[in-house]
Specification:
This protein is 26% helix and 30% strand. It is α/β, with parallel strands linked by helices. The strands form four sheets. Strands 1, 2, 5, 6, 15, 16, 17, 18, 19 and 20 form a ten-stranded mixed sheet that branches. A six-stranded mixed sheet has the order 8-9-11-12-14-13. Strand 5, helix 4 (97-110) and strand 6 (114-116) form a beta-alpha-beta unit. The longest helix is centred in the C-terminal third of the chain and has 16 residues, at 297-312. The relative contact order is 0.15. Belongs to the CapA family. Residues 4-253 form the Capsule synthesis protein CapA domain. This is Poly-gamma-glutamate synthesis protein (Capsule biosynthesis protein).
Length: 331
């Protein structure tokens, strides 16, 4: 029997979301999606903030936004939704300096929520997270090309920063070393989470397409992309999916009325016992009241049409299922 593994885009629990959550239950941030999230056998997100009450806003270089959530409610919210793993290689995990980064790692560890892409040293940031879901062993690795100032090194905390370029020798060597460590865990499924590219980009550049395909050729099974704040099309390369950008899942951001960064999907992967992704279900989502909800019929129709249009360039087609879409990856 296939297991259902959920992937989301950016989960930003700071600022107005954090303020709103002081007066409502932790699980309220998941709105009408809570039951759907909990029905997944496994759930992996990009956590786009630090979890701490300590630290001062990063001032070493210019940063216009700083995202931090109170771990007292945020950890409970992650637990209520059944989050198994968090990608931390992004441009906000050091927003409140090293103290808050370390608190984030400690809070997730205490809650037994796996994480990858950030660590107390570069080696730790590069370590794969390994999660057992039923009989399935999932390895989860995370990289970013955002904010080089946040990069970890041999002695300092930070992110797993790389250039997202398949022709870059340093990148190739780093990724291949990480994948070798990952293979040593004998995983059934390898998910690589990439926080790549600028905000509000409508499609991936050619270099990202080449990098994503190279990763799959190197043994990765699923590319879980994010960073643009808007979802991109899906490509299937040699039977494996590249989710170039999964958009925003929950946040307090201003809404672009053309790109609709408040709309995306919960991406549900059906994974067979041998670790093959056989199908992806796209459940339309919509952000309102600083929480994520099932999309309204109009918003769902907009997201379906846009996903189909964006995916046409990759020759990817979907079937309709209720308000959502289904992508079959073959038998």
């Amino acid at each position: 029997m296939a297991l259902q593994i959920g992937l989301t885009g950016d989960v930003m629990l700071g600022r107005l979301v954090n303020e709103r959550q002081q007066g409502r239950p932790p699980a309220a941030v998941w709105g009408t999606l809570l039951d759907r999230l909990r029905s997944c056998d496994g759930l992996f997100i990009n956590l786009e903030c630090c979890l701490s009450r300590r630290g001062n806003p990063w001032q070493r270089t210019y940063r216009p936004f700083h995202f931090r959530a109170d771990p007292d409610w945020a950890i409970l919210a992650l637990e209520r939704a059944g989050v198994d793993g968090c990608a931390l290689a992004n441009n906000h995990v050091l927003d409140f300096e090293v103290e808050a980064l370390l608190d984030t790692l400690d809070e997730l560890d205490a809650a037994d929520i796996a994480h990858a892409g950030c660590g107390r040293t570069l080696d730790e940031a590069l370590d794969p997270a390994v999660v057992t879901i039923g009989d399935l062993t999932i390895a989860f690795v995370s990289f970013t090309d955002n904010v080089i100032e946040y990069a970890a090194d041999e002695t300092s905390p930070g992110t797993a920063y790389i250039e997202m370029d398949a022709t870059n020798d340093t990148t190739r060597n780093t990724v291949q070393e990480v994948l070798e460590l990952t293979r040593a865990e004998s995983p059934d499924l390898v998910i690589t989470s990439l926080h790549w590219g600028p905000n509000m980009a409508e499609s991936p550049p050619d270099s990202f397409e080449q990098f994503g395909r190279w990763l799959l050729d190197e043994g990765v099974d699923v590319i879980h992309g994010h960073s643009a704040h808007v979802f991109h099309g899906i490509e299937v390369h040699d039977g494996k999916p590249i989710l170039y950008d999964t958009g925003d899942f929950v946040d307090d951001y201003a809404i672009d009325n053309h790109l609709r960064n408040d709309r995306s999907f919960l991406f549900e992967l059906s994974v067979t016992g041998d670790g093959r992704v056989s199908e992806i279900r796209l459940q339309p989502t919509e952000i309102c009241d600083d929480a994520v909800h099932e999309a309204s019929p109009d918003a769902a129709a907009w997201s379906r049409d846009r996903m189909r249009s964006l995916s046409d360039a990759f020759g990817t087609t979907f079937e309709r299922d209720g308000e959502g879409l289904v992508l079959s990856l073959g038998s």
